[in-house]
Amino acid sequence: MMLETETTQYFLLSAGTIFFLTTSCYVEEWIFKVLPDFDYFGFVALAELLMFAGFSYLGFRREAEAKASDVEDEGGWKQMGQRKSPLGIYIGVGLSMAIATSVGKVAYKYVNYATGTVLKSMKLLPVLVLSMVYLKRTFGA
Questions:
Q1: Which of 32, 59, 62, 123 is most buried per CB count within 10 Å?
Q2: pTM for this prediction
Q3: Virtual torsion, Cα 37, 42, 43, 44, nearest 10 deg
Q4: Are 98 and 49 in contact (CB under 8 A)?
Q5: What is the CB neighbour count within 10 angstroms for residue 31?
Q6: Are residues 125 and 132 in contact, defined by beta-carbon separation less than 8 angstroms?
């Protein structure tokens, strides 16, 4: 399927993102609260991370194929560039995301889903503070 304009592509991707995030949140809330004696929060986190890894692999593979052909493909994917940081940084970030996801899922045992979502949204604050302190970034209103 060839999308005609960037605006059309933007709205379709935005609608898809909202739809799939809403569906995911609904299903997780149902699994965590409605199923009796559900105690497999770590498995849900693992399944989520495996899905992320699988789709990332497919994306990188597509980018590598576009780079090998030395042209931009029909989907508009640009050629994949070289890694900007040492591999250890990527591994560290991946591990910290895996731990955060796992701990977040286990927390749903003790708080309702809406509270957990609000708490996850608050992670923006320490990111902004660390960016200002370590990277000397400024943020405007």
A1: 32
A2: 0.59
A3: 80
A4: yes
A5: 15
A6: no
pLDDT tens for 24-83 read 888 888 888 788 888 888 888 888 888 888 888 888 788 777 766 655 545 544 545 567
The amino acid sitting at 63 is E
Report, in angstroms and rounded to the nearest whole number, the Rg of the chain calculated over CA atoms: 19
Instruction: Report the 3 state secondary structure along 22-74.
Output: HHHHHHHHHHHHHCCCCCCHHHHHHHHHHHHHHHHHHHHHHHHHHHHHCCCCC
Could you tell me the sign of the dihedral formed by the alpha carbons of 10, 16, 19, 21, in that order?
Answer: negative
Q: What is the DSSP letter of 96?
A: H
Tokens of 137: 């970034």
